[in-house]
Specification:
Layout lengths: L16 H26 L6 H23 L4 H7 L1 H32 L5 H11 L3 H18 L1 H4 L4 H8 L1 H16 L1 H4 L2 H33 L2 E7 L4 E7 L13 E6 L9 E4 L8 E7 L3 H5 L9 E7 L12 E6 L3 H10 L4 E7 L8 H11 L2 E6 L9 H7 L7 E5 L2 H13 L7 E3 L7
Parallel strand pairs: 7-8, 7-10, 8-9, 10-11
Antiparallel strand pairs: 1-2, 2-5, 3-4, 3-6
Helix pairs in contact: 1-2, 1-3, 2-4, 2-9, 2-11, 4-5, 4-6, 6-9
InterPro entries: FAD-bd_8, FAD-bd_FR_type, Fe3_Rdtase_TM_dom, FNR_nucleotide-bd, MRET, OxRdtase_FAD/NAD-bd, Riboflavin_synthase-like_b-brl
EC number: 1.17.1.-
Subcellular location: Membrane
């Protein structure tokens, strides 16, 4: 179906929100790396090169550890501009960098001191632990970080339940405290300068305060303010259910179409389990709606929720919003239940839109009637593409046929990972700039 409407002129934004967010994070990290280096140089160099390298590796490793906390603090300003999936990915790779830097710190320090003494490296490490304040705490912190690194490796992560992995991951905060107290007690950079020590307390204070505010204070405050409850549970088909949630002052909740929450439904058997589900309708200030496909015990249990059930929701999260638009027209591509944020975005979008909904069969097209009504009301084109995964029905040639001006549109994509990877490849072949391609993968950390 095609309906013509007047198209708004292309906007010419200044700095894109994503670029602004990334630049802000890089600037914070770079500025602190420069300050750390200056304090390190001012403290003077040891005569042994290995010890110098070890101390510098320890400083940069600790700085990256503080930066990691900022990445998972879920601060709204950064989350809206970068997205939790990218912040989580950066947190993961920063974590491995921390691990290697701290291992280098230990190796260089131990071999450096062993070079100046008659002890072998193992006995030198034991001697340092027994004679230098904070070294035993540092060894304990490193052991914890190694364990967390091992369980965070892709092979192990896929075999652990999220709750188990998360519980182990929480021990990182113990490692943070142990490593910090070791540094301020034994680090030459901080024992030789009260200014450097004050700066280091400030860096870690800001990092920990960010986590405390973003992960605890803000969610608690919002839930106390809005007092969310389930008002209705509506089956969409045998496997999919929509849950309607209401509360107080929802017009003041800064949620946008395309975003998601971490939902906890406070029933006796599920209160401890949080799941990321997108809004399947644009927030209207009165009701929030999520639409979920049964994929496990947690999502299956939503069908049996009772009206009045209390809800604890963390969020809204995600950069999959119209904030990042660069073009006046848009293409929305959904696969399966990935239609939920796409349907919400269509409700909020201005300008001409094309919607492609990819499913195996017609009966899998959840919310299709709503999409069709929205498309008619907004003058959008809607294409339902059905069939098995092979052959690929969203290959470059097919996409170009359905949307000839695809390179001139913003593209929003949500669906199963294999489909998303295939479509992203098609978009690259068709010359769609990366700045016009918007997608988000649900992944949690910390």
């Amino acid at each position: 179906m095609t309906t013509l409407q007047e198209r708004p002129a292309a906007s010419r934004p200044g700095v894109r929100p994503g670029v602004l967010g990334r630049t802000g994070l890089y600037a914070v990290l770079l500025a602190n790396a420069v300050v750390v280096t200056v304090f390190f140089v001012q403290a003077g160099f040891a005569s042994n090169t290995l010890i110098v390298l070890g101390r510098l590796a320890g400083l940069y490793g600790a700085l990256l550890m503080a930066f990691q906390l900022l990445l998972v603090a879920r601060l709204p300003w950064f989350d809206r501009r970068i997205g939790m999936d990218r912040l989580t990915s950066w947190h993961r790779w920063t974590g491995f960098s921390v691990l290697w830097l701290l291992l280098a710190h230990v190796v260089f320090i131990v071999f450096g001191y062993a070079q100046s003494s008659s002890l072998d490296p193992v006995n030198q490490l034991v001697d340092l632990a027994e004679t230098v304040e904070g070294v035993l705490r540092a060894i304990t912190a490193l052991a914890i970080i190694i364990v967390v690194g091992v369980v965070s490796a892709r092979y192990a992560r896929r075999r652990l339940a999220y709750e188990t992995w998360h519980f182990i991951h929480l021990y990182t905060y113990v490692a943070v405290v142990l490593a910090f107290t070791h540094q301020v007690a034994a680090g030459t950079t901080f024992t030789s300068s009260s200014v450097a020590r004050t700066y280091w307390y400030a860096v870690w204070g800001v990092a920990l305060a960010s986590v405390f505010a973003g992960r605890l204070v803000l969610p608690l405050w919002r839930n106390l303010r809005h007092r969310l409850r389930v008002t209705a549970v509506v089956p969409e088909n045998d496997d999919v259910v929509s849950v309607y949630v209401t509360g107080r002052d929802l017009d003041r909740l800064p949620a946008r179409a395309g975003q998601f929450f971490l939902w906890r439904f406070l029933t006796r058997d599920r209160w401890w389990q949080a799941n990321p589900f997108s809004l399947s309708a644009a927030p209207d200030g009165r009701t929030l709606r999520l639409t979920v496909k049964r994929a496990g015990d947690g999502s299956a249990a939503l069908r049996h929720l009772k009206a009045g059930t209390r809800v604890f929701a963390e969020g809204p999260y995600g950069a999959f919003t119209t904030l990042h638009r660069t073009r006046p027209d848009a293409l929305l591509i959904a696969g399966g239940v990935g239609v939920t944020p796409i349907r919400a975005l269509l409700e909020e979008l201005h300008g001409h839109a094309v919607v492609i909904y990819r499913v195996a069969t017609d009966r899998d097209a959840v919310l299709y009637d709503e999409l069709r009504e929205l498309a008619l009301a907004k003058g959008a084109e809607l294409h339902l593409v059905t069939g098995p995964p092979v052959p690929d029905r969203l290959a470059p040639r097919e996409l170009a046929r359905l949307v000839p001006d695809i390179a001139d549109r913003d593209v929003y994509l949500c669906g199963p990972p294999p489909m998303m990877n295939a479509v992203l490849g098609s978009l690259r072949e068709l010359g769609v700039p990366r700045t016009q391609t918007h997608f988000e993968r649900f992944s949690l950390a910390g």
